[in-house]
Amino acid sequence: MKKITYNKQFIDSKDIKLVAKSLKSDFITSGKEVENFEKKISKYLKVKYSVSCINGTAGLDLAFKSINVKQNDVVIMPVINFIASYSMAKNLGARIFLSDVDPSTGQMTPKNLVNCITKNKIKKIKAVVSMYLGGYPENIKEFYSLKRRYNFYLIEDACHAFGASYKIKNKKFKVGSCKHSDLSVFSFHPVKTITTAEGGAITTNSKSINNKLRLIKNHNILRKKNYWEYDIKELSANYRLSDINCALGIGQLNKIQNFVKVRKKAYIYYKKKLSKYSEVIFTPTYKTKNLASYHLFLIKLNFKKIFGDKDKFFRYMNKNNIFPQFHYKPINTFSFYKRRNENFYGAQEYYRSSLSLPLYYGIKKEEQNYIINKIKNYINKKK
Questions:
Q1: Count of CB atoms within 10 A of residue 70's CB?
Q2: Is the pTM of this model over 0.90?
Q3: Which residues, in sequence order, are CB contacts of 195 under 8 Å at separation 6+?
């Protein structure tokens, strides 16, 4: 069996044609394709404003800057998280508090958030970052209620969740519609639901936030009446995405419904087949009936009972040309993190037993069966 990675992109001839066409135009940096891509995102998500950028990390940076996160402002985020949200907020001088997570899903719950606020005696919160790990949107209504109660900006780290939806009072919303948040941030890295090679986007319904985002992403250049005249009141940088990237994004966006549909089918197949080993393999059950993007297939393994050692299991899978992944190592376990006396029991439990099996558009049933059989063989070997 050839190498099976945990995720990969799908590019077809239509995508290639759109990119080739953009290369022949007068603009290959920021031109009409950027504008078209942003408009198509807004239309798909039913949100007022979409602002493209160079990647998801830049999107988080722009999101924090657009709401004026500054020195000593309090920002709360889950401890199970990619490092980008932490590093971008830290670079602005924010006081970051990490919240524990549900040990079954790896996601911060409303209860976790309130416990974090209470335990740390936090009186004023600038922003809370909620993260939909694996592309499964949870607790949106509850986080929105807490936003209004504590008066903070709610930023959705939706880098895994492009194409996902949720329901409130039987009404369906797209993640990124910002009907129950201030901003949403997406990544279009090759392993995500759609790709622009590298790229990202921020969505919002706030005109003022949109205006700030557009200034900040272009060196904070403020154009005057004459196009050759401009002013810069605050320093920034270049976060712009190119026409080439956006041409690819347009082609990908045209396929989003099918991408999610096929990923869901693969997800269901895994879940059905692995249910036979429920004593040692646990697949998270999400409490809401939200339509996920199915970015990842997350499982928890009882390493103590059967597998013994997580590293050995990874090496065994790699030896068989299967390359699962883990999402994510708790932020408090990194060397740079100073508050070592903190305990995150939910995160510790999640980290101890969780991993992501290969899941992507185009994965074959033959490949899934191969992965399942190798896991089964390992279980039987260790009994």
A1: 12
A2: yes
A3: 9, 11, 188, 189, 248, 249, 252
